[in-house]
What we know:
- 25% of the residues lie in helices and 27% in strands.
- The chain is α/β, with parallel strands linked by helices.
- It folds into 3 domains: 17-72, CATH 2.40.50.140; 101-131 and 213-384, Rossmann fold (3-Layer(aba) Sandwich); 139-200, CATH 2.40.50.1070.
Amino acid sequence: xxxxxxxxxxxxxxxxxxxxxxxxxxxxxxxxxxxxxxxxxxxxxxxxxxxxxxxxxxxxxxxxxxxxxxxxxxxxxxxxxxxxxxxxxxxxxxxxxxxxxxxxxxxxxxxxxxxxxxxxxxxxxxxxxxxxxxxxxxxxxxxxxxxxxxxxxxxxxxxxxxxxxxxxxxxxxxxxxxxxxxxxxxxxxxxxxxxxxxxxxxxxxxxxxxxxxxxxxxxxxxxxxxxxxxxxxxxxxxxxxxxxxxxxxxxxxxxxxxxxxxxxxxxxxxxxxxxxxxxxxxxxxxxxxxxxxxxxxxxxxxxxxxxxxxxxxxxxxxxxxxxxxxxxxxxxxxxxxxxxxxxxxxxxxxxxxxxxxxxxxxxxxxxxxxxxxxxxxxxxxxxxxxx
Length: 387
């Protein structure tokens, strides 16, 4: 952590150029270098590289810079596949080999879990890699914005350095069918700027309403299911409570591993879809309830014996509400399986769940559902601490 009293170099100011030796990559993708021990964050660099940067922002305890040129490249540096990389804000890591991305993400998750969650790094498993590092996204959102200087409508993604839209013709991490859709949208553009267009490839044999959540990487989805199933089976519980269940994906996929399950979701359209998905698969040992998690959890935990119950939570990126975490601490199920695409909020919530020794983290398994980007999916296995 950077000290609050760290002195600011008196000669440092925006617009200046400096040479930096990159020591590390912070969570989020920016490289960490120092000028007279003052931290400077720079994107699109790798550890061990010597680079020339230009200071663009100066804060009390750190500065941000843009990369001007790489003076001494890392052996892990590769040519980005996308012509928009560096401007489009969707990807942060196309400049590094995929093997380097996986290793770096493991280090970042380990550091983050230890710093925010108090979880020893040895409890973080190696990252499960994606079999397709490009062309994997099955859902993207493109935006339109009027480009006044060029008098045209930009259609694409928000830039990484500002709020403007980068005009794009294809996305290298999107599935090919979505790139065909981008071509279609460009040929029939929105009538004005400020319009968002969601492009999506629906999963085979799953009923998913338009605004309901589904995992955006079909290629590593089997690996995610396997990780969750192995985590559940290792606890030997009989019942599963699937919170924030969406269209019932995890509950239905785990149905064969438990005697019974219940899915809870406040989105009524998603719950209706979950029931249809269960019928399609002839899954009969579960049910789905449309309710807020905080309202439904106490009754469900009274219905099943805590020592025979696992609770699976797959909350939004902002994490769980404090009320839900406190209810879990009070109800004390035998196991909590926490699935998240936002490791920072996950680490925060794990810290709360484990406070006072109520639960213990058994294992955190990262899965690279988002290659070329800063994001990582994680599955945490928490067990009720023996008295």
